[in-house]
Amino acid sequence: MPAPIQAVMLDCDGTLVDTLGDFDAALNAMLRQMRRPRIEREQIARFVGRGTEHLLRCVLALQDGGAMPDEATFNQAWAAYLQAYEQVNGTHSRLYPGVREGLAALQAQGLPLACLTNKPQAFARELMRRLGLAPFFRFIHGGDTFARKKPDPLPLLETCRLLGAPPAATLMVGDSRNDAQAARAAGCPVFLLPYGYNYGCPVEQEGADAVLPDLPAIAKRLQAA
Ligand SMILES: O=C(O)COP(=O)(O)O
Ligand SMILES: [Mg+2]
Known about the structure:
The chain is α/β, with parallel strands linked by helices. The chain is built from 9 helices and 8 strands. Strands 5-4-1-6-7-8 form a 6-stranded parallel β-sheet, sandwiched between helices. Helix 6 links the parallel strand 4 and strand 5 (139-141). The longest helix has 18 residues, at 71-88. The protein is globular, with a radius of gyration of 17 Å. Magnesium ion is lined by residues 11, 13-15, 49, 174-176, 196.
């Protein structure tokens, strides 16, 4: 770790919260409404992490032999999905083990924290509130907060600026190559957790500064540094 860490940004889906149950419920409600076949969780997990547009395009293309949806189909899916997700948000989600303790340990070290996800901001804020995590974060930023989303470095750079810490001293904690690529491009150090959604690939190959088992292990590593 080149510079002492002054602030931490944490991804949401696959890092803090196992949201696969919410994605499952909302996507299958959308597909039902569109009179399409259902999709299984294992398949959904491979599409999570690059935001809602990407998720919907992947699901529809999978069902249509790889053909991307036309605008009307996409717009229908988008409206149905957002409505369904808003209804289920948090109902079928659970925190990964150690998340609350890990966030408390980071906070106890005096580190300002931000949640930085590709989920729409309104859904992310409501989810954090429902799970009781909102008070840990100075900012909760989503995929629609800035002009571009991860793996673009922009949301990380903007969040660092708001946190008042230089990118080189702001740690990104995530579960996927989007987080690693965005962090690299922003000049932020990055730790990955192995239990989330990384397109079905092991996170060890994503070039992170470290892969650690859970959030408490990350807090311990920062304290020891
Ligand atoms: O793709 C999403 O909707 C959320 O993904 P993230 O929380 O891992 O950024
Ligand atoms: Mg993630």
